[in-house]
Design a protein that fits this description.
Layout: E1 5-7, E2 13-15, H1 25-47, H2 61-80, H3 84-113, H4 125-134, H5 136-170, H6 172-185, H7 194-200, H8 204-229, H9 233-241, H10 246-257, H11 259-281, H12 289-298, H13 302-330
Antiparallel strand pairs: 1-2
Helix pairs in contact: 1-2, 1-3, 2-3, 2-4, 4-13, 5-6, 5-8, 5-11, 5-12, 7-8, 8-11, 9-10, 11-13, 12-13
């Protein structure tokens, strides 16, 4: 039987869906595993009675969630019979998806069915889903507030980082004056500046914009200047031979060639900006996911806290996935050359 594990040139073990022949037992089994896991979770949810210590909800929200998940799994399995891409993707992801639902079943038993964990701090999955559904209006408002804060601050920091990184990479004079500033201010966590920004800026919102931008600025600056300095000199010499001027050296040779480094800086800045966003919202903000989580924690409503954390994780995961898609499009020429 073909092994389920393959190794890339760096030695990292990775699962490859192409290792499964379409008619192999592993290929068929992995496609069925999500449905089996959801059915098992439904069986445990409906047949095992709840512990009296767990507060009841108006509706069996976790059961509704499992039924929706079952419908989606059935639809995906049906599509896999007609689409090769869906079939291989499901064969690759099936084991992981099944593991997620088995974990949820175990957590459901420990919290809702047996109440082995303190109900105040570890609410049942029914209560967590209920908190998301019943508080959806406020959560949507908080998500929109966080997105505005994240996107405005992120793009300002990204633009500033690209400009300063390009200046450092191409100009010795700019590097002389800017590099010491970057070395001194950059490594300081942006959240450390919260007390000063609340004094220096007219509102908590503008201070939060600055903090998110600062978190993105430093890694983008460092990786942009590093990428430019690592571009082979022969590229610029060849460009000069073909008549390229200073503008072309920057925008047609230097920046395109340093794009892998730039994207590494962008990814690092994105993660730092998420941390800064949530922290900034906890200080002086009126809305936002971070504000919502800390507010519900103060109210001792931990089901809402977990609901806010789930929304946060989902939102940031979507943004990171979009960034990966953008990177794949921009660096299409690196496919099968550079391993990410």
């Amino acid at each position: 039987m073909t092994s389920d594990i393959s190794f890339n040139p760096q030695g990292a073990a990775t699962l490859q869906s192409d290792n499964y022949p379409p008619r192999s037992l592993s290929f068929v089994r992995n496609r069925m595993l999500p449905i089996i896991a959801v059915l098992l979770a439904l069986l445990l949810q409906t047949q095992i009675p709840k512990a009296p210590a767990q507060p009841k909800t108006l509706h069996p929200y976790f059961t509704y969630f499992l039924l929706l998940a079952l419908a989606l799994c059935v639809v995906q399995l049906t599509l896999s019979f007609f689409r090769e891409k869906t079939r291989r993707k499901l064969a690759y992801k099936g084991l992981f998806v099944a593991g997620v639902f088995l974990f949820l079943s175990l957590l459901n038993i420990l919290t809702s069915k047996l109440a082995l964990l303190p109900p105040l701090y570890f609410p049942s999955l029914d209560r967590i889903v209920a908190a998301i559904v019943e508080d959806r209006a406020l959560l949507v408002k908080c998500v929109l507030y966080s997105l505005r804060l994240q996107l405005v601050g992120y793009f300002c920091g990204l633009l500033a980082g690209l400009i300063t990184g390009t200046l450092i990479g191409f100009s010795k004079s700019a590097s002389y004056w800017i590099s010491p500033l970057v070395r001194v201010l950059g490594p300081i966590p942006s959240t450390t500046w919260i007390p000063l920004t609340l004094i220096a800026f007219p509102s908590a919102l503008s201070a939060s914009f600055f903090l998110v931008a600062l978190a993105v600025w430093f890694p983008t600056t460092i990786m942009t200047s590093s990428g430019i300095s690592n571009v082979p000199q022969t590229y610029f010499e060849a460009g000069s031979t073909l008549g390229a001027r200073r503008f072309s050296h920057i925008f047609r040779i230097g920046l395109p060639a340093s794009m892998p480094h730039i994207f590494l800086g962008i990814f690092n800045g994105t993660c730092a900006s998420f941390i800064t966003l949530v922290t900034a919202e906890m200080v002086g903000a009126r809305y936002g996911i971070g504000w919502y989580v800390i507010w519900q924690k103060d109210m001792m409503s931990y089901s809402n806290v977990y609901g806010g954390l789930i929304i946060t994780a989902t939102l940031f995961s979507i943004l990171i996935s979009l960034l990966f898609k953008l990177r794949d499009k921009a660096l299409l020429w690196q496919k099968d050359v550079v391993k990410w």
